[in-house]
Every structure is written in C-alpha cells, then in structure tokens.
Design goal:
2 domains; 3 helices; four-stranded mixed sheet; Nucleotidyltransferase, domain 5; 6 strands; alpha/beta; elongated; 28% helix; two-stranded parallel sheet; 111 residues
Amino acid sequence: MKTVISIDIGSTWTKGAAFALTGSGFELKEKISVPTTQDNLVVGFHETLARLLHQDPLTPLEQLKGLSEIFFSSSAKGGLKIAAIGLVPDLTLQLARLAAMSAGGKVVKSF
C-alpha cells in the first residue's frame, strides 16, 4: 500500500500526516505535530518527516528521500516575505497580494 506524506510548516507548529492510498481515495494513518523552529524551518520539517516514516529523527534527510511521496505547504501567517516582479506594476501587485493571502505571506516589494 502506497503512503503519501503531507506536512504543513506553521508559525508555531509543524504538522504532518501520513495517508494510505486506497482504491477509493486516502485513509489517514497517522498525524504528528512538532514545534516549529523559527531559526531553521528544516529542523521541524525533518523531525516530522522522520517520525511519520517511523525513522530515527537523527536520520539524515538524504536517507529519507524516496521513502514516500511528500507534499508540503506553509500556513505561517505573515512570516513569508514576498517580492513580486512583473511588466504591469498595478496588476503585479494585485496578483501578488492574492497569492500572499493564500500562502500566509506579506508582499514587501513590487516591481
């Protein structure tokens, strides 16, 4: 049975879930939350991934690659700084703001 991993890096918690791919969709197998490390987001991501794959959290990230299909996102509110570059400044800014809202980010520059 194929396993799919989903990880969300938030401002406070990094949350992960393992799903089994069934004939009719997905079945939740396990979910985990670990504190997000503000100075290095990879730490929380790595620990979450290792625990969902039932590996030692000290296992190098390179050894965890390929063990499962992995999807990740960020729900950190305001933590993601976005700079947008486009040919039409007003349209670029408008679309950058829409993208930032769905990604939990903030547009800091538009060109």
